[in-house]
Amino acid sequence: MKILVTGAAGRLGGRLVQTLSERGHEVSGADVVGEGVLRVDLTDFEATRAVVRACKPDIVLHPAAWTDVDGCARDPQRAIVVNGFGTQHVGLAAAEVGAAVLYVSSNEVFDGLRSKPYSEYDVPNPGNPYAYSKWVGERALMNINPRHYIVRTAWLFAHGGKNFIQAVLSAAEAGKPLRVVTDEVANPTYNDDLTAALATLIETERYGIYHLTNEGSCSRWAFARYFLDRAGYAGTPVEPIVVSQYGRPSVPPRYSSLQNMAGALMGIRLRSWQSAVDDFLHREGLLRV
Q1: Nearest CA-CA partner of 270 in 208, 200, 166, 165
Q2: Torsion 267-64-139-250 (CA) sign
Q3: Which positions are annotated as active-site residues?
Q4: 2-158+189-214+257-270: what fold?
Q5: What are phi and psi of 199, to 5 degrees?
Q6: Does the pLDDT value for residue 161 go beyond 90?
Q7: For residues 148 and 210, is the Cβ–Cβ distance under 8 A?
């Protein structure tokens, strides 16, 4: 397939370009920054349309987003412009050239007021500006391009840059006190596992809504305790706190674990989050047990 990947300078987009190329697809990457990518600002419809027309892809994979959750809370209008209307622009431009679209959305589109995992067709009810902007993107794409995949994922960790695992391990190494919330529950997901699953999904050409995360869920505290123990910090204390004690502009859903029903019926399953964390730590040279 001929594929265009947005956000190609980011960790998810960049890994998608690599994975899809290795599987024999003809892949182009686009982003507002970065080397070796087509430069485009997806909030500019005409610029987006020009890039998509020039590439003439069979499908656009669209992980590009403003993922600063607290930043979105401070500037909700910008969040909608980037995540909502940016996705609308991609969907419209793709439809004009007959291309499908895969949009990477978030577990945060659910309000977190239940105690069992959300399946693909449970009704979203976003509770913060970031979540709302991602839901706007979902709705825009559904209404514009019938050949769509909407893939919700959660708590991504990736090589390069900084994520929750790297931030906590850096703090532990520096001897800083650790305080992690116990009442925020979701699915830790390894970037490399997600990209492989997305590549498999688009090769099926079975459009729809999917939840793709590593199997299992846990609290932020349990997540941190697991990788600290595996990285040799079993003796490092982690104070359990609740979300209300952790002051931040955005309030995440308390329970937003996702259930993979649709993908699993097609044989697309991701391994347990614990196995994925072990592999991540091993590749980073951090696994100690």
Answers
A1: 200
A2: positive
A3: 130
A4: Rossmann fold (3.40.50)
A5: -60, -45
A6: no
A7: no
